[in-house]
Amino acid sequence: MSPAGETAAARTGSEQAAAGPTVLDLGLPQPVRDPELPARVRIHEVGARDGLQNESALVPVEVKAEFIQRLAAAGLRTVEATSFVHPKWVPQLADAEQLMPRLVGLAERYPGLRLPVLVPNERGMDRALAHHAGEVAVFASATETFARRNLNRSADEAMAMFRPVVERAADAGVPVRGYLSMCFGDPWEGRVPVEQVVRHGLTLLEMGCAELSLGDTIGVATPGHVKALLDEFTRSGVPIERLAVHFHDTYGQALANTLAALRAGVTVVDASAGGLGGCPYAKSATGNLATEDLVWMLHGLGIETGVDLAALARTSGWMARHLGRPSPSRTVRALLGPTS
Fold this sequence. Notes:
single chain; alpha/beta; 14 helices
């Protein structure tokens, strides 16, 4: 989108005055507080890692660094920066060593900012610690087929691989987040029993993960399924405060699923600025839940996020121009125009 095509939501100063107020300037969405929902939600922003890793054209490291800085400036305080995976497997993130030095000092500029990184194994942990990563994450699977295709080992073997990573992180005083993929459905196995997901999730928590993100990797979850899974975790003794949710919007259910999770007490939601990302294992997958769409809903529910929605939308519009295609986020397109 060219500057001439930007709407008032993306402009500043005299340009905004000339264009007139935006829906945000008019106080929309109107907050209507539901006392049964959390008062505040922490958004775990994954656009710079999970969002960009599927891009075929390499994004320059300078653009990635500025993207993360802009996300922090928009008020996001957990921004997953990159992954220390072998470059052969994820070429887009081969520049992790070049990116991390560019992020030094951001936490001082934006107090409370967290910049976790994904580590697949002990070698990845070595690299993360060498760059003084303050938080790390490991990525496991709830199903056998995905574990073998994605990690080249069984689900239990993958857990065994992660255990020394988590132990080393604990020794270094670095918190670990556990991602569990295919929690609601698998493109080869179909339905995934709730008990199976809980068993693998408990393994990650028991080995020392501080937080567990439950992933709807191919976007097939529905609200009732979300509630059933969260209920089973809590019945198994897991405090709801240790659980996060990660939804894809393949079938348009991501916001409905998020609301179901909020009603169950979840206060950490993963999202990707501009809806960046997708799943190579589901041809119809439309990517991660867009952070802007999530923020619009949360603000309408009177839930605090600390996020400046206008600034965030401008950031996603900026990245969409770098990628050469419109953002799939409906909120971004509504605020900035359909070609943003």
